[in-house]
Amino acid sequence: MADFKGGKLLAVIGDEDTCTGFLLGGVGEMDAKRQPNFLVVRKETAVSDIEESFKAFLTRTDIAIILINQNIAEMIRHLVDAHDKPTPAILEIPSKDHPYDPSKDGILRRARVSKKFFYLQQTPPQFISQMSSYELSSHRECSTQKISVRHQVEVTRRHSVSRVFLEKKH
């Protein structure tokens, strides 16, 4: 498979069953430096070893997708969430012992946020100001404290700014 020009590899970080399944499917490869494209994580595997392999997979130009068991991704969540390049893509997958939890998946969380910002960026500015009470700000009143809390979010093409206003009512 190494003779295939222009092809990219999958990398797998997972438990023994996950890695064995992908290796039996033909995913296993060694690069020119004899480094495999998989890491079998066992109970005794140190988090630093997982981090080191993950960073190595991120820097390899022959890897397009990193498949990682979600429970292992939780161990190195800071590295997974810090990765913002399109390749290699990081996909969190379930393992035999740990079912998939969509609320922990970084890609789904980013997709939900991107969907909101995409919608707002595609909306003409004159309509955004009309939507501000629904989409961009929320308003709450505490009747016992007589305090009004207003949360406003400004969205531009490059960034968003969040402001919270506390106003004491007379």
UniProtKB/TrEMBL annotation:
GO cellular component: proton-transporting V-type ATPase, V1 domain
Entry keywords, A to Z: Hydrogen ion transport, Ion transport, Transport
Coiled-coil intervals: none
Keyword Cell membrane included in the entry's annotation: no
Top-level lineage group: Eukaryota
Molecular function via GO: proton-transporting ATPase activity, rotational mechanism
PANTHER family named among the record's database cross-references: V-TYPE PROTON ATPASE SUBUNIT F (PTHR13861:SF2), VACUOLAR ATP SYNTHASE SUBUNIT F (PTHR13861)
Similarity comment: Belongs to the V-ATPase F subunit family.
Protein name in UniProt: V-type proton ATPase subunit F
Native species: Geodia barretti
